[in-house]
Specification:
Oligomer: single chain
Number of strands: 13
Strand order of the largest sheet: 6-8-5-9-7-10-11
Radius of gyration: 21 Å
CATH class of the largest domain: Alpha Beta
Strand content: 15-25%
């Protein structure tokens, strides 16, 4: 490591200019200049706002780089916007970087932000740059703004409605399964790539007028339970769950059950939703149907299944 490149030596202005350079055309100050301490926009219609954040220590797997971390944080914030019926448009980002890190680390942080912004048409309006007191980790907070024709609430589903998700499930569970169940081997390469560069379901926005209730699945079954509790209902899972093919292959090789996968799911980058007519709409996968048998329960083959991520308690 070249000591002259350490942030403690080059200072904040050089770190900020390096970050702006790495963002390229994704950085846009709106009606103000890029180096102003705020951004200004003319916003019409419905604006949806979401703040999300994490740290390197909490969310970066050993085989990931800092560009993967920043990409994932923006993806999580954008998913919340999409689940509420909005198209992500603008982002403000607050960063904390230990002073012992280098300009190359800053470039990687900017690269992940830029790649996400370019892929999904998001403009980065600016933010804040801080020295992290954690010598082992970067932290990042993202404020995302989106535009919507109408906001979609989490509550509003009814007993008998069918529940759908925008993508297959289970990939987020594999690293946790391997850790907590002491499963030997490597994470499948397709799962690693998905975790590094998750896809946001923008196609969901094509049929939001047909959706009456939705939420993102950022905490696995815990997200499902919040969705269910909001309408005082429970969920009977389908006998043929939409488990991703690479997850099914992993389950067979490792001897892992569906209950195990459900327990250890976390950020799935998918939207859970119910359609106005109670049946399917759009391109989603059937998850199950709603029942009045209890509140907030997730049922599989007649038995309640547990799990989901809690930031303070871990997997529950």
């Amino acid at each position: 490591m070249r000591p002259e490149l350490k942030l403690a030596n080059v200072g904040e202005d050089k770190a900020i200019s390096t970050l702006i350079e790495s963002l390229g055309n994704s950085f846009d100050g709106g009606l103000l200049d890029k180096l102003d301490d705020a951004a200004a926009l003319r916003l019409g219609g419905i604006t949806i706002i979401k703040v999300d954040g994490t740290s390197e220590r909490a969310s970066k797997y050993p085989w990931m780089e800092l560009d993967d971390l920043t990409y994932r944080v923006l993806a999580g914030s954008a998913l919340d916007i999409v689940a509420k019926g909005g198209r992500p448009r603008y982002a403000l980002i607050s960063l904390g970087v230990p002073k012992e890190r280098t300009l190359e680390d800053v470039r990687l942080i900017g690269t992940g932000i830029r790649e996400f912004a370019q892929r999904y048409g998001v403009k980065v309006l600016g933010g804040d740059f801080n020295a992290s007191e954690d010598p082992l980790g970067v932290w990042i907070d993202v404020t995302m703004l989106g535009e919507a024709r109408k906001p979609i609430r989490m509550r509003g589903a009814q007993a008998g409605d069918k529940v759908y998700v925008t993508s297959c499930l289970g990939r987020s569970a594999i690293p946790a399964l391997m850790h907590y169940l002491s499963i030997k081997g490597d994470i499948p390469s397709s799962v690693k790539e998905w975790l590094r560069r998750p896809e946001i379901p923008l196609s969901f926005l094509r049929y939001v007028d047909e959706v009456k209730a939705a939420t993102d699945m950022s905490d696995g079954l815990r997200s499902m339970r919040r969705f269910l509790t909001s309408s005082s209902l429970s969920l009977v899972l389908s006998e043929e769950l939409p488990i991703c093919r690479d997850v099914s292959e992993f389950m067979e090789e490792a001897g892992v059950s569906v209950e195990d996968v459900l327990r250890f799911m976390g950020e799935e980058y998918t939207v859970i939703y119910v359609c106005n007519r109670g049946e399917g709409c759009g391109e989603g996968f059937l998850l199950g149907h709603l029942t009045e048998r209890g509140v907030g329960k997730v049922l599989l083959r007649g038995k309640e299944v547990f799990g989901g991520w809690d930031n303070f308690r871990g997997f529950t």
